Amino acid sequence: MWSAGIALVSAEATAAPIRVTYDVVVVEGSWQPLAPADLARAVEGAALEVLSRGGQLQLHRAPGPGAEAEPGAYRLKLESHVLAEAQTHTVALQLGPGTAQDLPSLSAARTVVLGGLSRGKMLEAVEASAREAAAALVQAMKAPLARLGKAGDEEPAPVDDPFKGAPAPWQWGPVRIPKASVGKAARDLYGKNAKKRQAALRVLTSEALTADSPRHELERCALEHPEEQMREGCLKALRPLSMRSPPTARVVVEVYRRDDSGRVRREANDQMVYFTGPARAEAVQAWLEAATQGREHGPLEELGDLPNLDLAIRGCLEASGKERGLDNRRRFGCISLLEPLPHARRKAILWRFVREMDPDSPYYLKGAGEREGSTGTPWQRSVDALLEGMTRWDPKLEEILWARYQRDLSHAAMSVLSSWAAPSERLAKRLLEMVQTRGENQALFGLVRIATEDAKLRPMVKQALLQMMAQGAFSKDIDERRLKDAVSKLEREDAR
């Protein structure tokens, strides 16, 4: 099954292989059915077997501390950890920036149950999961690598929607809570009497600090109790334990992912903020999953660039676009996550959305037409995000902006065309049309700008403005003195 994903990345996409340095990390736990060295070899061998096919990645193990080696364009971390009580093993592959910044940070994970298996079967399960995680990472890398283009290209190869249909590379393993001996407090926790339920919760909360069975009852309650108040209470009781017990932390993450109650999810979120190690990585992926679904996504805006952030933003924009009747806050929340990303990655996410003109499409970004100069909109903020870090003008963006202006007189589109677009005869004619039909002062400013930057355009622009004034063929929303001032500025440029 995993081999089908390998062929998706071919050596044709780039002229030279990409250098990737990698580390292998084994996080040891209280239950260690396999030696850490054996786990490291199994994960490394299986994952690299998949990642090295296709010839696109050159994988080099990072040297130890103090040793010098050529850095990689990207850095890969292969992590293995065992969750004792659940008797599961998780392999997580994380690809992030090294000397290059244009490929998204990506992460893939797979979890398998090791309990009850022989040593040989355990190693087989670990290797199979490492191959599946590597194949998922390859699939996630396919479109971003294609977008990088061939070596030496000034501009990445255009990919309209590189993350469309991409499966979530992070796969959540099962939550396995050991069966506890059912005592009176455990029975009362689910009883009909509210006072007895609260009394049972207090008993289990105190006992869970020193014994496993009460903790397991609280974990099961947080996940499964039919009453919101009890789920929240059990979750609060787990606060001191989730910080030091990896199985409990995994339960808290699962509560955040599955619970429909905002109150319960907020409590889980507040605990996840303080997680460390593998639990922290799972908390981050849970927040990213929430963003992908267009839901509240914890502290993501404060965490910078993260593995799978690009996929999450794209999913967030589409999911929030499918819900009608909502204000712009959810879309703004998605767009705010773009902050740590460089221009090329922003463009890969936003392009499909900024070019959409159908208001009924989930890709459509709402604007405010002529009022965009006085109010923020998802359309305007997305265009602003595209402009940030842009090193040269994209003619395709000009066509999108012009279409948006023609469609609803978008102030943002007019402003960007006037202030940013590269000088050309086509742009000059478009700005002249804005001045003539709408009396746009900013378009007049744009005309002076491009005619100043490109002397070949000056005669055409001056003649068109003089003809407007002579025939009175311009919108009365613009003062004729402004037209005269524009002509005078261009004449002074000619005289230099």
Describe this structure in words.
This protein folds into 4 domains: 18-149, Double Stranded RNA Binding Domain (2-Layer Sandwich); 175-275; 292-397, no CATH class; 423-496, no CATH class. The longest helix has 30 residues, at 119-148. The chain has helices spanning 3-6, 36-51, 119-148, 184-188, 194-207, 212-224, 228-237, 239-242, 246-258, 262-272, 277-292, 309-321, 329-336, 343-354, 378-387, 395-408, 411-419, 425-438, 441-453, 458-471, 480-495, and strands at residues 18-27, 57-61, 74-83, 88-97, 106-113. Helix 12 (309-321) runs parallel beside helix 14, helix 18 (425-438) runs antiparallel to helix 19 (441-453) and helix 20 (458-471) runs antiparallel to helix 21 (480-495). Helices cover 52% and strands 9% of the residues. The chain has 21 helices and 5 strands. It is an alpha/beta fold and 496 residues long. The chain has a 5-stranded mixed sheet, covered by helices on one side.
Tell me the overall shape.
elongated
Output mean pLDDT. 88
User: Gyration radius, to the nearest Å?
Assistant: 29 Å
CATH class of the largest domain: Alpha Beta
| Cα separation of the termini | 70 Å
Question: What CATH architecture of the largest domain would you give?
Answer: 2-Layer Sandwich
Helix/strand order, N-terminal first = HEHEEEEHHHHHHHHHHHHHHHHHHH
